[in-house]
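Worked Example 4.2. Consider the chain below.
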Amino acid sequence: MAAASTVATGATVVAAADSQSITTVSNNISNSNNNSTNNDNNSNNKKLESEMRAPDSVVVTVPLCGSAASFALTCVLPFCNIASFLWVYTALPLYFLASDRPLWQLSLLLTVVYIPRLLVQIATRKYGEWLCVPMSFIAAACNLLFAIYPDSLAAIWVAVSANCAALNPTAYRALLHDRFAPAGTWQVKRALRVFMFADTLGYACAPFFGGVLYDNGGLRACAIYALAGTAVCALLPLTLASYWSSWRRRGCWTPSCGSNESANKVVESTLSDEPSKATSSKDTQTRPEGEGKDEESVRVAGAPVAVVMIAAFTNITVYAVEWCLYAIYFRLEFGWSGAWCGFAQMVGDLLGAGVLTISTMACVHHSASRCRCGSTPFCETLWRILGAVTRAPLVVPCLALCHGILMLMLAQPDFVVSVLGQILMGTVYVFFEQACQEMILVYSGGSGSLYRHYLAVHYLIFTAGCALGSPIAYGLYGAGGFATAFYVCSGSSIFVGLPTAAYYGCRLASTSGGLLGGFAASEKELSAKGTEGAVRSATV
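Applying the procedure from the previous section yields the following structure tokens:
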């Protein structure tokens, strides 16, 4: 640009001489400016290329669709993992009922099998996600034994226990986070919703598959089906780079272990609601792990995370009671076959999964925030209220109340009311669990290690709820029948939902957005206030 300025000064002097010189010098000025602009553009292009080659400063684009690895991690693995186990909730109750075995044996089985699952979760947290593969190999071997001896109670115990232990969505979610975190929070949320859809599809189809297979081939057909699913879960992760990264770490999170987060690639935009912000390189900062972020996040988010965990425990426990009883209930009360019992159980889960898929593809959350039914204050307030009660955190107590209502419907002797209660229970469970997962993501504050910690705690609580569902269900059924079990669960869900609504109402009321504000922005504001208060206390 300095050369262009010098030529411009010469043009002023020559202009006093003659117009031909002016034309000549003007052309020179234009050429000089063009050359200077081209040089600047070339310089900018080279700078941009150099920035694109710097992995520490630019967010990496990770495709959610069109990639075999992404499809395997978000769709195939969660589907096969959950579907390889949950068929037991249709087939085994019908088998015990047909063989005149006491239901306390089934209750004991469906409780004890969660103990090895709990141990595997603790080991996964300590040693890494790579454990999902050897556990799936063990489950496949046990299913082969089960297929050979389908009527042996010992083979049933061994196979069901191994399948339950191999059920490890926490490991797959952590691998998913490793793969998509460099692309920003919006991509992680989308990937989690696809994962949740596949997981929901798996446990929705599993009872139907279990009913059909048991009606036509007995437990041997169910064992072969479980063998195929666990074999996929044993082999497919070996093709994923994130799995081998977990193997190299083997529970180590120091920079020498090769962890993405240890290499200072922590995405700091987790609290952003906008996809444009989540994919902007300006929102990505390098932060060495251990600089106090995780400790501060745990201190500030301890109470709300505890509330989320209590809500998640209520969600799975109430739903587990329904899972334990639905096959026997509809067989004894309405004379349904195993296939029909599984089909009705499947419909509600698929409905919830379908809504999640639509929200993932169409970005419903962000589009709805821009919609207006009119320019009047009433319409705008109405949209804000609807948005607040259909997203975290207020959607959690609303769904807990829905659980209570649906349990009341399930207890009614009217066939249509009871079936509607069963179907919609699955839909409510899907939305409830997805809301808890997204709240955990927000409270992790962009930290991969903290996210893993919250996932591990959540899954331990989730496993405890699954294990307790069986003794609660069959104990209450033995004490007072099906209606007693459903009424007690209804009251428990409502009892948890009301205090949860009061807690988050008080918590959000102190933020600038109030009850109708965005959840992530409100939590970010509360976290900042908590940090400032801690600094003032330390100063005093």
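The two ends are 55 Å apart (CA to CA). Confidence is low (pLDDT under 50) at residues 1-30, 44-60, 258-300, 362-372. Compare this with Example 4.1 before moving on.
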